[in-house]
Every structure is written in structure tokens, then in C-alpha cells.
Design a protein that fits this description.
Blueprint lengths: L1 H4 L4 H21 L1
């Protein structure tokens, strides 16, 4: 994830992080 950060723009990265953290939350809740 950190390596990819350099290839993505700041806004896109923030969106990705938010989506990723949301997915983690849902996965944890589902489990």
C-alpha cells in the first residue's frame, strides 16, 4: 500500500484509504 501511494494522486489515495478502511470494518463486522 505504501509503495502504491507514490503512484496515486493525493485525492485518489485518500479515497482509496477510506474505501480500504471501510472494507476492513465491514469484513470485521461480518466475521
Amino acid at each position: 500500500m505504501m509503495r502504491m501511494a507514490k503512484h496515486y494522486p493525493d485525492q485518489q489515495l485518500k479515497r482509496r484509504v477510506m474505501h480500504w478502511s471501510l472494507n476492513l470494518r465491514v469484513t470485521r463486522s461480518g466475521s
